[in-house]
Amino acid sequence: KAGVTQTPRYLIKTRGQQVTLSCSPISGHRSVSWYQQTPGQGLQFLFEYFSETQRNKGNFPGRFSGRQFSNSRSEMNVSTLELGDSALYLCASSLEAASEQYFGPGTRLTVT
Amino acid sequence: AQKITQTQPGMFVQEKEAVTLDCTYDTSDQSYGLFWYKQPSSGEMIFLIYQGSYDEQNATEGRYSLNFQKARKSANLVISASQLGDSAMYFCAMREADPGAGSYQLTFGKGTKLSVIP
Q: Which residue among A60, B92, B93, B98 is least packed, with the fewest CB closer than 10 Å?
C-alpha cells in the first residue's frame, strides 16, 4: 500500500504571496490532519478533516485554511505569507479519527 | 502547562546498548492514547508504538517497548540493541478526544535527539 504523499516537497515563496500544499492519504483513510513544525514552536496541530468536513482546528490565524475532497485528498492554503510561516508542513492520515496517524514526508516551505 | 514533556533534548547511546527516552504527560481525560514517532533527518515522521490509557500491558513492537506508568503519567520509550539507523529525533505524542468536534488531535513533545555511537 502506498504511503501518504505530499507535494511539493520543497517550496520557496515571497512574503505576501499565497501557497497551496497537497496531501494524498493512504488508500482507504478518511481522516487527514495537518501539522506545522518549526524549530521554535515544535509540532503544532493545524486542522483535521474527515469526509470533506473540517472537524477540528488548532490555534492558527485565518490565513491558514484547508479542504478535503471526496477522494480524501486534502489541500492546505496559506495566504499573505509571513516570514514566520517558514516551516515543515506535515500531513497525516488515519483510517478513522481514533486510529494511528501515518505521516507523509512533509513540504518544506521557505518564505523570503 | 505543557501537555507532553520530554526532558532530554539530546541523548547518546553506544551501538547495541539499550536506551530509555523519557516522556511525561498531563491530561484530565480518562481515555487517551500515547504515541512515539521517529523523525530522521529526511523529515518524515515514522510511527513506532502506541499505548492506550486502558491498556494494562506495556506495548511492544520489535526492539521498541513503552514503559507505561499511568499513576506517574509517564510513557517512556525503550529501544533495545541500538543500531546506527536509530539516530534521529524521537517525539512523544498524546491523543485526546474533542467530543464536541467528534475529532482527535495529537499534541507533541519537543523531542529528543538520539545519537547512536559506533
A: B98
Query: Under DSSP, is residue B64 helix (H, G, I), strand (E, B) or coil?
Result: strand
Look at strands B112-117 and B88-98 and give their pairing: antiparallel
Residues for chain A: how many in total? 112
Which of the 8 DSSP states describes residue A84? G
Give B100's pLDDT tier (boundaries 50, 70, 90). Answer: low
**pLDDT tier, A97 (very low <50, low <70, confident <90, very high otherwise):** low
Q: Do A55 and B109 touch (CB under 8 A)?
A: no
**CA dihedral defined by B64, B66, B67, B68, rounded to 10 degrees?**
-170
CB neighbours of B71 closer than 8 A, spacing ≥ 6? none
**B39: nearest CA partner in chain A:** A105
pLDDT at B97: 72
Nearest residue on chain A to B43, judged by CA atoms?
A: A105
CA dihedral B107, B59, A97, B47 (to 10 degrees): 70
Residue A33's nearest CA partner among A47, A53, A23 is A47
Residues B26-46 as b or e (16 or more Cβ within 10 Å = b): ebeeeebbbbbbbbeeebbbe
CA A93-A94-A98 angle, to 5 degrees, is: 135
Contact assessment for residue A104 and residue A21, using Cβ atoms and an 8 Å cutoff: no
Any A CB within 8 A of B89 CB: no
State the burial class of residue B99 (Cβ atoms within 10 Å of its Cβ: 0-12, 13-18, 19+): exposed
